[in-house]
Write a structure and sequence with these properties.
Distance between the termini of chain A: 66 Å
CATH topology of chain B: TIM Barrel
Radius of gyration of chain A: 27 Å
Strand order of the largest sheet of chain A: 10-9-8-7-6-3-12-11
Radius of gyration of chain B: 19 Å
Shape of chain B: globular
Structural class of chain A: alpha/beta
Shape of chain A: globular
CATH superfamily of chain B: Dihydropteroate synthase-like
CATH class of chain B: Alpha Beta
CATH architecture of chain B: Alpha-Beta Barrel
Number of domains of chain B: 1
Largest interface: A-B, 59 and 58 residues
Oligomer: heterodimer
Number of helices of chain A: 17
Largest sheet of chain A: 8 strands, parallel
Strand content of chain A: 15-25%
Strand content of chain B: 5-15%
Distance between the termini of chain B: 15 Å
Number of strands of chain A: 17
Strand order of the largest sheet of chain B: 8-7-6-5-4-3-10-9
Number of helices of chain B: 10
Structural class of chain B: alpha/beta
Bound molecules: cobalamin, iron/sulfur cluster
């Protein structure tokens, strides 16, 4: 963020009309300066001021969108080096590489895997994001056919790759309505591809053979008026790549160095022939600043942990994900259904409710507000002890829903069962298993009616 | 165009801690930069991996994790030897899991005898973990210190509730300690201050900030490690300038996703490779956050991580 609140304030209308949702222009300026408001909220700015402030208040790493519609992928927009400072904005796009050198069967198999791979976790769908189509065979028609096939087969956002500028231009034109990423402008073809990207309004990747060369090409493109760039420093080893990624991010953040103020593209697929090792390198890039991560295959055993890593690194460090405090009814419950209790940390809720669901034993799951903390964390923080669980059980309304008085508590809270029985004299406290994965077996043998 | 690398000024340095003894000492720590930031500082001792050995035959491991050790499970000495001889373990981490009062509650003297045997059987540095039960660990780890006098074992966890008793015994018998606090930079610092007050020497302390697995709270652990490391290097917080250990294998291998077979969850791919990668990627993340010592289980995960460390120690042609 370039300007201070006061500097921004000087450019505002100073009428304190309140249309932006805060009472004064100064308050609005302060919010803008800390990234808590959008410029568009004030309807009374002149175009000039908008542009000036827009530039100054834009994040140091530009937000670039690839693709259109629901499958559009947003990248960049980052403002910090470390995730504990502030939430990382846009998780990396895991991208499947397809080449016109692969035979049809391989391509179809890989595309099918790509399309069917999706996981729901904590209520969020995780999946690989884009497909990269690479022309390597010197045969433009084969490359074009592959681009067409991929376009017909999936709505996913695309990366088009070809060293042959003509073939690349032709492909980009054929599907420019889908806003593919064009890969890549080099020292040799920068004018041609720069004009093409501008003409088609498509994002453009920039490839240098060193950071120096990368900066030169990027600067040229900025001067040509190409706005949406993606950076490839040319590093093809893990060590060099880490170094380049850090230097690029730091240059953008600490020096406001414009040529490096863009998301990056990295190629674990070109760094090793071993798919397990490729996944490890990709993981490194999740943590350290890769935006588009190109993979040679999408296999559940590697993409699932990668998506988990990306989810972990990109969650908000200040605010644990939480669900609402209430009675969740899982399956066709009735007055004899088991009653279980846990805290409202999203991860805990989704794991436990998932297992209850798997058990096919209709159950009531009481979710108590633990301020988004896991079972033991909440207990250790004094938010999930007998003293707070008891009043919640009494008040939440479960006593009207079931005839019985049996409450299953998490196995890790076994130590509080005595105390809880004292606080809830009508209830019998049952100690559940420690790990939720044992819940299906546990629920199946549980006898509620005596 | 020349690119001026925006460097961070590191005023602090991580202390170098010798582990084990004699010819087999392995030194950890010594960094003067963030992890693998070799363009602006040095990492004289690349991170090391301690291979897990359990005091009893594990009952609840998935087959994919047990398989490499099936022939030695239940015999901690043979297990430790196998780790060194077959898998080239740089260090061993003995998990005295059966001492847990909620498990078998193995008595302290028995646990100490097992530890003694293992420590006699292998030359490499030996980490010894109690069960994280404050009172029981006090008994067990004191007995371990005594039985293995002079061997410079690395013992823990020393927590707020038992650091005094165990710390004093550890100094007496010349061991190194792991100061353990739950994912909190201030608590970590505080415990190190307390250990200093107790006269535990600075070259005998390792920070154990506690760890969760990938997908199970790892993000918190990642950030607390990054904060501890940057506070040590940039803010020169002297009581945080110690190497960090990450003891995550036991967290990883209890998660649901390493246990599901490919039949049960086809979209999760090959079960064995998945488990290995979840462990190895948990390692990759904590390495990049600042861990110096990793406690790991699966030999193939360990190989992947060793390669990763090697690769990250090479700056590459520029
Ligand atoms: C991440 C983490 C944190 C994060 C918080 C994350 C969060 N949103 O909760 C942070 C860094 C904030 C944190 C803070 C603290 N933490 Co903490 N934390 C952890 C850690 C590493 C992982 C927790 C986690 O996310 N688990 C994953 C979730 C899904 O697990 P879960 O909720 O328990 O659910 C599982 C089971 O319980 C079961 N289950 C859940 N519900 C139910 C219900 C039924 C009916 C059944 C049958 C089963 C069941 O299913 C789930 C999967 O199997 C653990 C150590 C570890 N490795 O587990 C320590 C840990 C829980 N923390 C601990 C402590 C002490 C604290 C602090 C009090 C430290 C301090 N003094 O500041 C603070 C308290 C926070 C505060 N004051 O606000 C201790 C608790 C010790 C104890 N035994 O009491 C632990 C165990 C670490 C340790 N070994 O010392 N922590
Ligand atoms: S809408 Fe614009 S002019 Fe009105 S108070 Fe807000 S910033 Fe000021």
């Amino acid at each position: 963020m370039g300007l201070s609140g006061i500097e921004i304030f000087k450019k505002l209308p100073k009428t304190n009309c309140g249309k932006c949702g805060v009472p004064t222009c100064l308050a609005f300026a302060m919010k803008l300066a800390t990234g808590k408001a959008e410029l568009d909220a004030c309807p009374d700015l002149s175009e000039d001021v908008k542009e000036e402030l827009g530039e100054a208040s834009a994040p140091p790493v530009r937000t670039v969108v690839i693709g259109t519609g629901e499958q559009a992928i947003k990248l960049g927009g980052e403002t910090v080096l470390f995730r504990h400072e502030k939430r990382f904005e846009n998780p990396p796009a895991f991208t499947l590489l397809l080449s016109d050198k692969m035979d049809e069967a391989e391509i179809s198999a890989k595309l099918t895997k790509f399309k069917e791979t999706a996981y729901e976790r904590v209520g969020i769908v995780l999946r690989p994001a884009m497909v990269a189509v690479k022309g390597e065979s010197k045969d433009t028609s084969g490359f074009m056919a592959l681009v067409e096939k991929v376009c017909n087969d999936t709505d996913a956002a695309l990366v088009l790759m070809n060293e042959d500028t003509d073939a690349l231009s032709q492909a980009a034109k054929s599907c420019s309505n889908r806003k593919p990423l064009i890969y890549a402008a080099t020292s040799e073809n920068v004018e041609t591809l720069g004009s093409l990207a501008r003409e088609l309004s498509c994002p453009l990747a920039v490839k240098g053979n060193s950071l120096e060369e990368l900066a030169e090409i990027s600067e040229k493109l900025i001067k040509m008026g190409v706005k949406d760039l993606i950076l490839d420093s040319g590093a093809r080893t893990a060590g060099k790549s880490l170094e380049d990624q850090i230097i690029i991010r730091r240059s953008a953040l600490m020096k406001k160095f414009k040529p490096f103020g863009f998301p990056t593209i990295v190629f674990p697929c070109e760094m090793t022939d071993n798919p397990m090792k490729e996944a490890m390198i990709a993981c490194q890039m999740v943590a350290k600043y890769g935006s588009i991560i190109i993979l040679s295959e999408i296999e559940g055993h590697s993409i699932f942990p990668l998506l988990l890593a990306s989810m972990n690194i990109f969650t908000d460090p200040q605010r644990p994900m939480a669900v609402e405090q209430k009675i969740y009814e899982i399956g066709a419950t009735d007055e004899n259904s088991p009653v279980l209790i846990t805290g409202n940390f999203s991860l805990t809720y989704f794991i436990v409710s998932g297992e209850v669901d798997t058990s096919r034993v209709p159950s009531y799951l009481l979710i108590k507000d633990t301020e988004g903390l896991s079972v033991l964390t909440a207990w250790a923080a004094g938010k999930f002890g007998a003293d707070t669980i008891a009043p919640f059980v009494k008040k939440c309304g479960i006593e009207e829903k079931v005839k019985h008085r049996k409450l299953v508590i998490p196995g890790y809270l076994a130590t509080i069962s005595g105390e809880l029985e004292e606080e809830l004299p009508d209830w019998e406290i049952l100690i559940g298993p420690r790990e939720a994965s044992h819940l299906p077996a546990y629920l199946k043998q549980l006898k509620i009616e005596d | 165009m020349t690119i001026e690398i925006p460097k961070i000024a590191y005023a602090g340095k991580i202390k170098e801690i010798p582990l084990g003894r004699g010819e087999n000492i392995i030194t950890v720590g010594g960094e003067s930069c963030c992890p693998f930031h070799l363009f602006e500082g040095a990492m004289p001792h690349p991170p090391k991996i301690a291979m897990e050995v359990y005091d009893r035959a594990p009952e609840d491991w998935p087959d994919t994790a047990l398989e490499p050790f099936a022939d030695v499970a239940g015999d901690p000495v043979a297990w430790a030897r196998k780790c060194v001889d077959t898998y080239g373990a740089e260090m061993i981490a003995l998990q005295l899991a059966s001492t847990d009062p909620n498990a078998e509650d193995t008595p302290a003297d028995e646990a100490a005898a097992i530890t003694k045997k293992v420590s006699d059987a292998v030359e490499v540095p030996l980490f010894v973990f109690g069960s994280s039960s404050v009172d029981k660990d006090t008994e067990v780890l004191k007995a371990v210190c005594e039985a293995c006098e002079g061997k410079n074992l690395i013992i823990g966890p020393l927590a707020e509730g038992n650091y005094r008793a165990i710390g004093a015994t550890a100094i007496g018998y010349q061991h190194t300690v792991m100061a353990s606090t739950p994912i909190d930079i201030n608590l970590a610092k505080q415990l190190n201050i307390l250990l200093g007050n107790l006269n535990v020497p600075d070259d005998k302390i390792i920070i154990d900030p506690t760890t969760g697995a990938l997908g199970y709270g790892l993000e918190y652990c990642y950030s607390v490690m990054e904060r501890i490391r940057t506070a040590a290097l940039v803010q020169e917080d002297e009581r945080l300038q110690f190497p960090i250990i990450a003891n995550f294998a036991k967290e990883v291998w209890k998660t649901k996703e390493v246990r599901l077979s490919e039949m049960e969850a086809p979209l999760l791919g090959d079960q064995k490779k998945r488990g290995i990668l979840i462990e190895a990627m948990t390692a990759q993340c904590v390495l990049l956050a600042g861990a110096d010592i990793l406690v790991m289980r699966h030999p193939e995960a360990i190989n992947l991580v060793k390669e990763s460390i090697q690769d990250l120690m090479i700056r590459g042609e520029s």
